[in-house]
UniProtKB/TrEMBL annotation:
The chain crosses the membrane at residues 29-48. This is Uncharacterized protein. Residues 93-115 are annotated as: Disordered. Keywords: Membrane, Transmembrane, Transmembrane helix. It comes from the Bacteria. It comes from Pseudonocardia kongjuensis.
Length: 115
């Protein structure tokens, strides 16, 4: 995580320097606050990563492995979940209804003229 944050801040700083060299000092009015915003966002992410990891470990110890992971390891579809049934095909009638070809343009005119 630290390496990733350093790489992101480094790339943002290099982009700011290149923009400064290309366009001059007005770039700093927008680029400076953006660089600070990136640093604050990454700091917040780094500070919340450890509590999320502890929560993930506690849930894994309390609940064991998830039923979805167990089903995937056995090679069978899971019985439920967030999107269960969403992609299932609903039961259809045994046969398709009779489909007749559409009338040709001239046949439509003739059918419309008929009394």
């Amino acid at each position: 995580m630290t390496r990733f944050a350093g790489a992101v801040i480094g790339m943002a700083a290099v982009a700011l320097v290149v923009a400064y060299l290309a366009f001059g000092w007005p770039v700093l009015l927008l680029g400076g606050p953006l660089l600070v915003g990136i640093a604050i966002t990454l700091l917040a992410l780094a500070l919340t990563e450890r509590p999320r990891e502890v929560l993930r470990e506690r849930r894994a110890a309390h609940l064991g492995e998830s039923p979805w992971k167990q089903a995937a390891e056995r090679g069978e579809p899971s019985a439920g979940g967030l999107m269960s049934g969403f992609f299932e095909v609903s039961p259809q009638a045994a046969g398709l209804p009779e489909q007749r070809p559409a009338l040709a343009h001239d046949a439509r005119r003739a059918a419309a003229r008929r009394p």
